[in-house]
DNA sequence: AGTAAAATATGATAAAAATCACATTTAAGA
DNA sequence: TCTTAAATGTGATTTTTATCATATTTTACT
């Protein structure tokens, strides 16, 4: 469903959501290891997210990555779109085109409503929500 | 959601479902072109499907690919599993593991029910159903 | 100012997925 | 039985995705 890069991105950002703050920055290697993602790979992804202002970073000693409280309001969908590009989630199951109810492919009616529901949730769920889930022990941040 | 190969496979099989029969076999090039898939690529996929008895074929002059009426009973899910492998649809959104409600990842609750519903439908929908849809003009076989 | 510790930029390599090419096998029809 | 038309098998090439490496920039601390 998601690319590898997006999976990694979500895991990393969620890790920051739980463990970081403006006073508690985290170095790349201390993110990569606990979420089980190659260090150099996640570095590239975090840099892209940082450039898009989805996460924050500072260079130099005592530097690292972190989330501001504003950034805890980021919607999950924003991360997905930033990494995978917008098209991916709205593409038709059978063609390259955008899914289109006026010209539905043969699988469209099997999936459209559910896919929509999922997309809606990804659009309204923010990092803070997921952090709360994790801190309550209702879900985990998998390896 | 699906790999390119699975998309192509479904389109090709659906094309056969609509246009072929034991008396009306279709050559690779006459499948590849209308569904807009590279000839050599779809050939490989069709060969795999043929070996798994999801479609039929005969060699030589007047040969080609076709579906028997038995094969019109094939479930969409069978095609997906044959091409992409079973794991893909049941894997967790964030990890390599199988999705597991007893140990849910942070996105699990956002998608589980809907993904399940989709999977159920893919498991109970057969090619004949989709063919009917297409022939009634309720859905299309996209390029 | 100088040094060291961090992210950043850029690019190289490896692995996987998609695509292309061709020689082999099978079967129909002359 | 010979020729030809089709799928089949095997493997090569290209493209995309994932991974690795390294030089540069920024910043804190001395
Ligand atoms: S048109 Fe294909 S999934 Fe909607
Ligand atoms: S455990 Fe991750 S999607 Fe179910």
From TrEMBL, chains A, B:
<dbReference type="InterPro" id="IPR000944">
    <property type="entry name" value="Tscrpt_reg_Rrf2"/>
</dbReference>
<dbReference type="InterPro" id="IPR036390">
    <property type="entry name" value="WH_DNA-bd_sf"/>
</dbReference>
<dbReference type="Pfam" id="PF02082">
    <property type="entry name" value="Rrf2"/>
</dbReference>
<dbReference type="InterPro" id="IPR036388">
    <property type="entry name" value="WH-like_DNA-bd_sf"/>
</dbReference>
<protein>
    <submittedName>
        <fullName>Rrf2 family transcriptional regulator</fullName>
    </submittedName>
</protein>
């Amino acid at each position: 469903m998601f690319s590898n890069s997006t999976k990694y991105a979500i895991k990393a950002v969620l890790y920051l959501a739980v463990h970081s703050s403006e006073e508690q920055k985290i170095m790349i290697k201390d993110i990569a290891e606990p979420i089980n993602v190659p260090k150099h790979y996640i570095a590239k992804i975090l840099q892209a997210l940082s450039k898009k202002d989805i996460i924050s970073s500072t260079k130099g000693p005592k530097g690292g990555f972190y989330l501001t409280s504003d950034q805890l309001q980021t919607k999950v969908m924003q991360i997905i779109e930033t990494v995978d590009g917008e098209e991916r989630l709205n593409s038709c199951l059978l063609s390259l085109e955008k899914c289109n109810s006026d010209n539905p492919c043969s699988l469209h009616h099997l999936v459209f409503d559910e896919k929509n529901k999922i997309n809606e949730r990804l659009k309204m769920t923010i990092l803070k929500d997921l952090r709360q889930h994790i801190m309550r022990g209702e879900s985990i941040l998998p390896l």
